[in-house]
Amino acid sequence: MGTDYDIVVLGAGPAGLTAGIYAARARRSVLVLDTGTVGGQTVLSYQVANYPGVAETSGRELSRAMAEQARAFGCDIKAFARVADVELRGEVKVVTMRDGARFRSRAVIVASGGVPRKLGVEGEETFVGQGISYCATCDGDFFTGRPIAVIGGGNSALEESVALSRYASHITVIHEFDHFQAEPWVVAEAQSNPRTSFLMNQRVLGFTGVKGLEEVRSVDKATGVVTRTTVDGCFVFIGYVPNSGAFEGQMELNERGEVVTDEALRTSLPGVFAAGDVRHKRVRQITTAVADGTVAALSALEYLSGAAA
């Protein structure tokens, strides 16, 4: 089984969906594939309040609107796609599915995003799903009236700590530095929340519990004092690891595994472009992902026009 498209987009987050919108609106046949749900990491955001023109919405609703718009322009979107292999080095790019189906295209836009970064400490794997979570939207209401910890000090960690205060009886934010990496207004909102306290300059040592998570152990990096924080749940927001494993050995990646691109979002492979959190960049926001998707799509369209000339 095989189907040909002008462009295959790998990833259905904001970058991938935007690329699909632009490419399909240009009357190109476009397939958007995602191994998970449509929307990527955006659907995990309880509240989105800084997307231009949208006063306030949820990540899930914003993703749904983007997907509907892409489909309206003719995008074929497949979620929970079981991809077996991706071959990008030839003139014709081929994505092979586990059921044997093959999708061929002349251009590919890699917008595969990332996965939550884990701490890699004692007890973390043991308590995933039994107290440890990486998604406030998914699991926040499970901890209604119960104490929790949030690990991290960037925008995501502090924004989600505020969102989680709708449920939890108390939140302890545990951060590895003595200062936050979040925007000032985000820090101010978190610090003004009466249900939130902060443990700064901490290195998390591990998690313990009997039937479920009961304690987060951390040590002050300056004094060596160990703190045992009693919790029923813990949410970890310390960044993402680029989802680029399928492309290793095919295109240039940097030391962090991010796809290297030029200003036009061209990768080291002709006809392959990258957009969103999977590529090397400093700022990772929904708006920057959308911008990437736009540039990548326009560059892919230009490539296709040149190839046809």
- Count of extended strands: 17
Uncertain runs are none
Mean pLDDT: 93
Supply the CATH superfamily name of the largest domain. FAD/NAD(P)-binding domain
Beta-strand content: 25-35%
For the record, the CATH class of the largest domain is Alpha Beta
> Which architecture of the largest domain per CATH?
3-Layer(bba) Sandwich
SS content category: alpha/beta
Tell me about the largest β-sheet.
Answer: 7 strands, mixed
Oligomer classification: single chain
Descriptive overview:
- The chain has 309 residues and is of the alpha/beta class.
- The protein folds into two domains: 2-115 and 240-308, FAD/NAD(P)-binding domain, CATH 3.50.50.60; 118-236, 3-Layer(bba) Sandwich (FAD/NAD(P)-binding domain), CATH 3.50.50.
- It is built from seven helices and 17 strands.
- The strands form four sheets. Strands 1, 2, 3, 4, 5, 6 and 17 form a seven-stranded mixed beta sheet that branches.
- Strand 5 (93-97) and strand 6 (102-110) form a beta hairpin.
- Helix 1 packs parallel to helix 2, helix 1 (14-25) runs parallel beside helix 7 and helix 5 (155-164) packs parallel to helix 6 (184-191).
- The model has no long low-confidence stretch (mean pLDDT 93).
